[in-house]
Each structure stands twice: as structure tokens, then as C-alpha cells.
Amino acid sequence: MARRKHKGIVWVTGASSGIGRALALRLARNGWQVAASARSAAALEELAADQEGSIFPYPLDVTDMARTKQVHAEIELAMGSIDMAVLAAGTYKRDGAFDFRAQVAQSMIAVNLQGTCNALEPLLDSMMSRRRGKIAIMASVAGYNGLPGGATYGATKSALNNLCEAMKPEAERRNVSLSVINPGFVDTPLTARNDFPMPFLISADEAAASIEKGLEDGRYEIIFPWKMKLAIKFLHALPAMLRFTITRRLVRAPD
Ligand SMILES: NC(=O)c1ccc[n+]([C@@H]2O[C@H](COP(=O)([O-])OP(=O)(O)OC[C@H]3O[C@@H](n4cnc5c(N)ncnc54)[C@H](OP(=O)(O)O)[C@@H]3O)[C@@H](O)[C@H]2O)c1
């Protein structure tokens, strides 16, 4: 019998920068064949050149449902069955009561929530019928509590936690494992625009290491760093009125 020389085939979305890029590199260096997706074809080509023979670019806008399904099929045709997927494509724009715009909300929902669903459908279809596979969905600790400035972003991440939790028991019946990833603040282009202090900030490489370990350990919730985990779970456990006494301090009045 032919022996597989690699750990398996992993599809990473959001692989052109930040956490997704660091994770794609780490997984490739540690024996995975990586299909890397994001909109920036040039950034994906550069990534593939860095790990020639281990990372393969599959440019994609996850908001395009038909194209996402097509890319999934292209990967499986060219590389073989996807063993693991990390759905990390995401975007953040500040919004809240001062500046709420439905169109801004729609743009975040389209990428973070609908974009994840667009990749989930073909992944679940093929993994559930094959009765094998692992899917990790990138959410955020921002999904735990409603925080000023992160109204829609937090809502999308909260929804992803709920979606993943709802599907896990059914997926398990077909030997498909679902995980949710809830990072705290990570130093990436997404957070570089933030003009407020980011407690317990970690690098994208540190985040990728935590994710890889969590996946290897088969954890359902991969949440890090531990100080942020404690802080956010404590806040979540407080009664709403007490939580508001804390979150009121985070309000930043517009100029
Ligand atoms: N940084 C943090 O503190 C933090 C904390 C918790 C969770 N997260 C989550 O982690 C994930 C990665 O974020 P990051 O911090 O690494 O930010 P980032 O560097 O901005 O990376 C975002 C990635 O998503 C891709 N992307 C955005 N829109 C896309 C679309 N329509 N179709 C396909 N790909 C798209 C981007 O590539 P293109 O622009 O090339 O498409 C990029 O590769 C996001 O889901 C984010 O919400 C981040």
C-alpha cells in the first residue's frame, strides 16, 4: 500500500495575511499540504513560493457562494479530499450606536457569517458523506459579550459560536469534528487600525501555534491567550447590569 508522505490536506481561508497566513505557513512546515484562499492572489502566490510544494493558492472571495463551492471542488479534484479546513476569512469595522450603518453591518455579515457558511456547505456535504474530516471556524472572544465599537463584528462571531455548537453533535454522528477558535487580540492588519489599548495582545505566530496545538489536541473551543480567556469568561458570567458598569467605561465618544 502506498504510504502518504504528508499529514493530510488542509484548506485555510483568510490565508493571505495575519492569523490565517501564519497558520498556513506553520501547517505547511509541519507536514500538511495547504490549499490557501483569500482574495489577494498576489499575496497567496508569495506564500506558495515561500513553501513551494506545500502551499497551493486558490484565490477566492468567500462572499461569492457559487465560486466558493467551485473552489472547494477544484481543491478536492487537484489535491484530493480535504481532511481539515480552517475558515479564518474575516473582516472588522468599528460600529455601534453612534455610527450604526446597515450597509457596514451587511459587509461584515457577508464575510464573517455568510462567507463562512458558503465554505461550510460543500465541506459538510463531502465530509459527512465520507464520514471523516475536521472543520475549525474562526470566531473571536468578541462573540462572548456585546462590547462598544464591536456591535456587528461581535454579533457575527457570537453567531459563529452558536452555529458551530448547534452542528457539532450532528456532525459527530458522521465522524466529522467541529471546533471553534476564539482568539483574544492578535497583532495583524485587522487590529493595526485600532486606536485603543489591546490587552494581552499576541503575535500572529503565537496565535497560529495555539490554534495548531488546539487542533492537534482535538479541542472543541480553542480560546487564547489564557489571560484573555479568564477575563472574558468572568465578564460573561456577571449579571448584565454589572457587565454594563464595566462596558460603559469602554465607550469612546466620536470626535
Ligand atoms: N486579529 C485579532 O485580534 C483577531 C481576534 C479574534 C479573531 N480574529 C479573526 O481572525 C480572522 C483573521 O483575522 P486577522 O486578524 O488575521 O486579519 P487579517 O490579517 O485582516 O486577515 C483577514 C483575512 O481574511 C481574508 N478575507 C477578508 N475578506 C475576504 C473575503 N471576502 N474573501 C476571502 N477572504 C477574505 C483576507 O484576505 P484578502 O483581503 O486577501 O481577501 C485575509 O487573508 C478573522 O476572522 C478575524 O475576525 C482576529
From TrEMBL:
Molecular function (Gene Ontology), one example: oxidoreductase activity
Pfam families xrefs: adh_short
Swiss-Prot/TrEMBL keywords: Oxidoreductase
Family: Belongs to the short-chain dehydrogenases/reductases (SDR) family.
Domain of life: Bacteria
Record protein name field: Short-chain dehydrogenase
Gene Ontology annotations for the cellular component aspect, listed alphabetically: membrane
